[in-house]
Specification:
heterodimer, A: 431 residues, alpha/beta, Alkaline Phosphatase, subunit A, two-stranded antiparallel sheet, 11 helices, 14% strand, B: 568 residues, mainly alpha, two-stranded antiparallel ribbon, 48% helix
Chain lengths: 431, 568
């Protein structure tokens, strides 16, 4: 950053120093004209430097719909079972796929829910449903996990200058009626944020921002609708971010080589490592995307040779690292996709979309660990125990983070919306 | 109508005769309000009736500057230049709006109109993600530019896309180019299985407003869509193959879309069937049957003649195009799409879902416009003209206490009592920045398009599914603001280099105030307020005589404002 603030800082000066420095320039610029130094009058509130314990969640999103019957709920010997074998794990009585040997050593931290049963087997609908707990509705856009959790937990990290909802290697789902303030901040897995470098000095930036605030506020004052105000809120967030030293949390290349190696030199590996760094910073929600699970054809070699090794290395490193650093008790990890895949193996040696019976994996936070919840029928097609939905899973994740399920949002149309769509907690996940 | 609705209407009618811009009771003004075009009148009448039913009052008319900016953005994909804006503002003809629309839809702006709708339709037909190697975007664009330059009737346009055969690349040394093949060239295969599933889903969605993708695997949970209908529709694409070719003088790869005999999965080409799997594992058979139940010949043979002169066979895609053309949903879908394009919201949400479960907000208007569009020989420019000359399109985006509740972003059904704010598309922003800075480079043609593609690619997020779903981060979030703050395009637009836009303004003979006004007109199509002038003048002072530097700061600020990026 060309603000003259970053490199060469005196060691021991707190991270928010650079912002103070910038703020002093802003104060100078305010003499320029009317005292309109912010877009929404909220941005430059002083940040308390007291860091408290904070909760976070990491969603490992498996775009395309992973074949959970081949990963977490194998059916060896059944005609639908496929060629993979089971192996035992660090959790008593919990067996998973042979191609997840590293995760097998971490399963005492995790819980498999084998009784997910949903109805959305279209990618876009399933993706929306699993991210929000609601089926798509043309009249209202619901907030996704990241927006809800960031919204609920942002207060515990008032010093946070980067967005509270970060999406690595994908776009996640949006903030819906909570507004663009809670939109996912998308970065690539190298932690590169485009266009972060400001080409002018801080005084000049401050003066430009003041001119900009004048134009913004005039337009907002004309009452043309919410999107003009949303624009200003995002401007505030962007300025905070541009002037923040906290951006270094995105720099996974600053990690020691052996740590990077442990996570794997893959997009997903770097994304998981970045997630751990962001959790340490206090970011309430991080989604890391791993796509390529839409295996309608030729599924078994694709899983065994490509998808599972990459996922196994990164996910196991993340869980172990969080546990080693004492972060796992305050960090919930969720592994899921939009649905599972058909137990029947199709003519192209692939599996198609299947939402009626499939698995997700959770761990950390207030979750009970090393267990399996629910089971599917012998062929894997049906859930044989009490079925759970997206909203049930969401309610459970929120509970594991200590977020009240009594929370109610007001949608823009004034309708009250219960958090997690009134889902019921999956009781087996709690001791 | 409710009693309060009546009261409001009476009050409204009383006021209408008095206020400027509310002209229902003034016969002279009324004539100009619909410019003698019956379809404009239809829109106005139905929309006003909707206000009255809902007891809502419309906003005042937009200013001429706002309207001019709007119609340039929507028809030619960019803001007006200062010259274009001023010409419109000083025009005192009562038909000046119709005149401007006539010019924007005419020869003078043909290239820019074509470029704009090429952008719009590229996204509709093949999405934003440029990584599908079976789609040749330059080839598609070349085809679309020709269509929109020549104003090809929409029914022919659909037919050309749905029945296209030939080579999808326009690279030199490759013969048989037909850019229209790019609609289907990337939709015939999934993971190496040539099943035409995406071709089926997208054809139904784009041209008929039917969302059938779910019914590939099961009956639709909440509309009448049945799984057999999906596969019967899909059967129309089973004579089609997307063949991978390689060669030419530059050794390139391309797709050749061909029609070929379909032997049928049951081995009988006379009755060429396909099989699909029910949820319970049972296999069912499907032949080509259109959504309205019309079955065509089950023959898998392409048309030919036997030695004795008897004709045989059928071309399934050509039959499909004929059936789409005559189906009532065909004009409904495009009218709804274009209404949504110009007014921010279609009559249904989403605009490309016209299923029975999703009734439109203004059914009579949708039906009336669809009928008129068919009668007008599917002329897309005429459809555009009707909508942009209508009263709802000319309303201010400033809300009033009498219509503030008309806010579709809150899930309300749109009543169109005011112009709904919407952010420019990334394409519109790109072209507007070039226009506002009077960048003189050639903006039509493939090199310009490729440069734009590279810039646009930074916003695309692919979801990693077989269906090629994607989204954009050009959605008002932080990455977009960072691009506007610091990105290369904005750096270029705000550069103070010799002979550039800012330099020319700075060294012109204009007064300091006029210079600032020029920047405002170029970006926002209005003059600065007193307060804005004061802040801008303070910047001039702070730059201590560096006029171009101060103008650069003002310019950067207006380009970054909500007012610039929002079509209002």
């Amino acid at each position: 950053m060309n603000l003259g603030l970053g490199p060469g800082r005196v060691p021991g000066i707190p991270a928010w120093m650079s912002r103070r420095h910038f703020l002093s320039h802003l104060a100078g610029a305010a003499a320029l004209a009317a005292p309109a130094t912010t877009f929404t009058n909220s941005i430059f509130a002083s940040a308390p430097d007291l860091r408290k314990r904070h909760k976070s969640a990491i969603l490992l999103w498996m775009g395309g719909g992973p074949s959970t019957i081949d990963l977490w709920d194998l059916k060896p010997g059944a005609p639908t079972g496929g060629p993979f074998k089971q192996i035992s794990t660090s959790a008593d009585g919990v067996a998973i796929c042979e191609h997840l040997p590293l995760m097998a050593q971490q399963m005492h931290h995790m819980a498999i829910v084998r009784s997910m049963s949903t109805r959305e087997a279209d990618h876009m609908r399933g993706r929306y449903y699993m991210h929000t707990g609601y089926v798509p509705n043309p009249n209202v856009t619901h907030p996704s996990y990241g927006a809800v959790i960031a919204h609920e937990l942002a207060e515990q990290v008032p010093y946070l200058e980067v967005p509270p909802f970060v999406s690595v290697g994908g776009g996640s789902e949006g903030p819906g009626f909570l507004g663009m303030t809670w939109a996912p901040f998308a970065v690539d897995s190298n932690g590169n944020v485009r266009n972060l470098e400001m080409g002018v000095d801080p005084v000049r930036l401050a003066q430009r921002l003041e001119m900009l605030a004048t134009v913004e506020q005039r337009f907002i004052g004309e009452r043309r609708g919410g999107s003009s105000e949303d624009h200003s809120k995002v401007l505030d967030k962007t300025v905070r971010l541009m002037t923040s030293d906290q951006m270094k949390s995105f720099k996974v290349q600053d990690e020691p080589a052996e740590v990077r190696e442990r996570y794997g030199n893959t997009g997903f590996g770097r994304g998981c490592l970045m997630a751990r760094r962001l959790v340490e910073l206090g970011v309430p929600f991080i989604e890391v995307d791993l796509g390529g699970w839409d295996n309608h054809a030729n599924i078994f070699p694709t899983l065994a040779d490509q998808k599972l090794p990459e996922m196994d290395k990164a996910m196991s490193a993340l869980v172990a690292d969080l546990a080693d650093r004492g972060l796992l008790d305050d960090t919930v990890v969720i592994w899921m996709g939009e649905f599972g895949r058909t137990p029947n193996i199709n003519g192209g040696a692939g599996r198609d979309h299947w939402a009626r019976g499939w698995s997700v994996v959770v761990g950390g936070g207030g979750f009970k660990r090393g267990i399996v919840v629910g089971e599917t029928s012998a062929d894997g097609k049906e859930v044989a125990t009490e079925p759970y939905t997206s909203q049930d899973l969401m309610a459970s994740v929120l509970k594991a983070l200590g977020i009240s399920l009594e929370t109610t949002f007001t949608a823009k149309n004034g309708r009250p919306m219960k958090i997690a769509n009134s889902g019921k907690v999956i009781k087996e996940l709690f001791a | 109508m409710s009693r309060s609705g009546w009261l409001r209407m009476v009050v409204w009618l009383a006021l209408a005769g008095l206020g400027p811009g509310l002209s229902a009771a003034n016969p002279g003004a009324d004539r100009y309000e619909h410019y003698g075009i019956p379809q404009v009148r239809l829109i106005n009448d139905r929309i006003v009736a909707g206000w009255q039913d809902a007891g809502l009052e419309p906003s005042a008319a937009a200013t001429d500057g706002e309207w001019c900016r709007r119609v340039f953005l929507d028809l030619v994909g960019r803001v007006p230049t200062v010259t274009e804006l001023q010409a419109f503002l000083v025009d005192s003809s009562p038909t000046k709006k119709a005149d401007l629309v006539g010019r924007l839809l005419g020869d003078e702006f043909e290239d820019e109109y074509a470029r704009n709708f090429t952008d719009v339709w590229t996204t509709i037909l093949v999405g934003r993600d440029a990584t599908n190697e079976n789609v040749n975007r330059p080839g598609l664009r070349q085809y679309l530019r020709r269509c929109f330059s020549n104003n090809i009737p929409y029914d022919r346009f659909m037919e050309e896309l749905v029945t296209a055969t030939g080579v999808n690349t326009n690279r030199r040394g490759v013969e048989g180019f037909n850019g229209a093949t790019n609609f289907l060239s990337g939709k015939m295969e999934e993971m190496g299985v040539a099943n035409g599933v995406q071709a089926t889903a997208k054809t139904a969605q784009i041209f008929l407003g039917l969302q059938v993708q779910c019914t590939q695997c099961h009956n639709h949970p909440f509309n009448k869509g049945k799984q057999n209908q999906f596969w019967e529709f899909n059967a129309f694409f089973r004579q089609t193959a997307a063949l991978r070719r390689r060669g030419g003088t530059e050794d390139v790869q391309w797709i050749e879309l061909v029609d070929q005999d379909f032997p049928g999965e049951g081995g009988n080409p006379e009755e060429a069937e396909l099989y699909y799997e029910l949820r319970n594992g049972l296999m069912k058979v499907a032949y080509p049957v259109f959504i309205d139940g019309t079955a065509i010949s089950p023959s898998g043979y392409l048309p030919g003649t036997m030695e004795d002169g008897t004709p045989y066979g059928t071309n399934r895609r050509q039959e499909l195009a004929k059936l789409i053309k005559t189906n009532p949903l065909f004009p409904f879908a495009i009218v709804n799409r274009m209404w949504g394009y110009f007014l921010g919201y279609g009559f249904t949400r989403p605009a490309d879902d016209l299923g029975d479960h999703n009734p439109p907000s203004h059914p009579e208007l949708l039906e009336g416009l669809a009928g008129a569009f068919r009668e007008q020989s599917f002329d897309l420019r005429e459809l555009a003209r009707w909508i942009v000359l209508s009263r709802p399109y000319a309303l201010s985006s400033r809300t009033t206490p009498g219509n503030r509740i008309d806010d579709p972003s809150l899930g309300e059904r749109p009543k169109f009592t005011h112009f709904y704010l919407r952010q420019m598309s990334a394409e519109q922003l790109y072209e507007s920045l070039l226009t506002a800075t009077e960048a003189d480079e050639i903006r039509v043609g493939e090199d310009a398009a490729k440069r734009k593609d590279r810039w646009l690619s930074q916003f695309v997020i692919a979801f990693g599914t077989d269906e090629g779903d994607d989204a954009t981060t050009f959605n008002g979030s932080i990455p977009q603001v960072l691009m506007m703050f610091n990105g290369d395009l904005v750096k270029e637009a705000t550069s103070t280099g010799k002979g550039g836009f800012l330099d020319r303004v700075a060294t012109s003979g204009l007064s300091p105030t006029q210079k600032i006004e020029t920047l405002y007109l170029a970006a926002l199509a209005r003059k600065p307020s007193a307060k804005e002038l004061k802040t801008a003048n303070a910047l001039l002072g702070a730059r201590k005589g560096d006029v171009v530097g101060a103008l650069q700061d003002v310019w950067w600020a207006v380009l970054n404002s909500n007012e610039f990026i929002i079509n209002h």
